[in-house]
Design brief:
This protein is an alpha/beta fold and 349 residues long. It is built from 14 helices and 13 strands. The chain starts with 8 loop residues before the first strand and ends with a helix. Bound molecules: pyridoxal-5'-phosphate. Pyridoxal-5'-phosphate binds next to helix 3.
Length: 349
């Protein structure tokens, strides 16, 4: 098994981490049963632990963040309704149009600042259903941290203000909290504080928390009961799922306390980049484990920089001709970060 911190530094995503020895041991020893019939004790424990951490009544395991968002949104909505989302939200851009194809929803996009929508803009985008030409808005979708904006964290106040508007109009709010623990660490609050104003939240074990598989939807008991039915419809009910729940339990217990290290590594990389000629990094957006950089020079493009990094055993992928997203995670050590900064100075300095 590759040893974390040696050889290749993979900055493409925090989904690239490998399960550690503690996770593999927990998986091999997990007590299991048929989860579709509610008989898997390890999965039941994970769902209870997760709900408690997020301050909600109940939890439902799903195999991915995409499935978590889809199942939650489908549970809250009916076809022909409208969903309000931030213009660069993951649900809109990167989840295969599931909200249209499988939920029958019309996306109503609102631009955000660093991924965060203004409550007044959300309010202006609401369709109240009185106009026969339009479907009524039934849900607002939020993302914390915001992936495309560079891992920016939305505060409890900002979340509450949008939820107040939505709830005043009788709408539900679903939070894509794939990296909610990163947001909590960056803001110095609990994940439950960030989830308190919303009706449902999805978070991922398989990203910064370091587990190999899985996400969790949390909400009140009635919602989760209905979501369980929807999960079954999309083929997401599992059998002896405790083997993957066991790794997720380790991730939930050991992941959050070390996320500040990932944030410090991202900061170091961002500050190094910001000092290099023709490289733009908005340091204000580097709040968690993601660094978005833009090359503003003739001699190097994003693909050519990624190739150069590749020859030094540093993996990165371009977003387009000028931009690259770098992500730190559990397997990027202090030494790796120093090496990345050194190589960046050599290649771009
Ligand atoms: C903010 C956000 N939401 C949802 C997802 C989807 O997660 P998955 O890849 O597990 O489907 C991602 C994946 O990167 C993400 O960044």
């Amino acid at each position: 098994m590759p040893v974390p911190g040696t050889d290749v530094v993979d900055l493409r995503s925090d989904t690239k981490t490998l399960p550690d020895a503690e996770m593999r041991l927990a998986m091999s020893e997990a007590e299991v049963g048929d989860d579709k019939s509610g008989e898997d004790p390890t999965m039941r424990r994970l769902e209870e632990m997760s709900a408690e951490r997020l301050g909600k009544e109940a939890g439902l395991f799903v195999v991915s963040g995409t499935m978590g968002n889809l199942v939650a949104i489908k549970t809250w909505t009916r076809p022909q309704e409208e969903i309000i989302l931030e213009r660069e939200s993951h649900v809109y851009l990167w989840e295969g149009g599931g909200i249209a194809a499988l939920c029958g929803l019309l996306p109503r996009l609102v631009p955000g600042v660093n991924g965060i929508m203004k409550p007044a803009d959300v309010e202006a985008a609401i369709s109240d259903g009185t106009n026969v030409h339009k479907g009524p808005t039934s849900i607002v979708e939020l993302e914390n941290t915001h992936n495309m904006a560079g891992g920016t964290a939305m505060s409890v106040r900002q979340t509450q203000d949008i939820c107040d508007v939505a709830h005043r109009h009788g709408l539900r709010v679903h939070l894509d909290g794939a990296r909610i623990f990163n947001a909590a660490v960056a803001l110095g609050v609990e994940a439950a504080d960030l989830a308190a104003p919303v009706d449902s939240v999805q978070f991922c074990f398989s990203k910064s928390l370091g587990a190999p598989i899985g996400s969790m939807i949390c909400g009140d008991r009635d919602f989760i009961e209905e979501a369980r039915r929807v999960r079954n419809v999309v083929g997401g009910a599992l059998r002896q799922a405790g083997v993957i729940a066991a790794a997720a339990i380790v991730a939930l217990e050991t992941g959050p306390p070390r996320l500040h290290e990932d944030h410090a590594h991202a900061r170091m990389i961002a500050e190094t980049l910001a000092e290099l000629p023709g490289v733009f990094v908005d340091l204000a957006t580097v709040q968690t484990n993601i660094v978005n950089l833009e090359l503003r020079r003739e001699d190097v493009s994003a693909p050519s920089l990624c190739r150069a990094l590749g020859t030094c055993d540093i993996k990165a992928i371009p977003r387009d001709e000028a931009r690259i997203r770098l992500v730190t995670h559990k397997q990027v050590t202090d030494e790796d970060t120093e090496r990345v900064c050194r190589v960046l100075r050599e290649v771009l300095g």
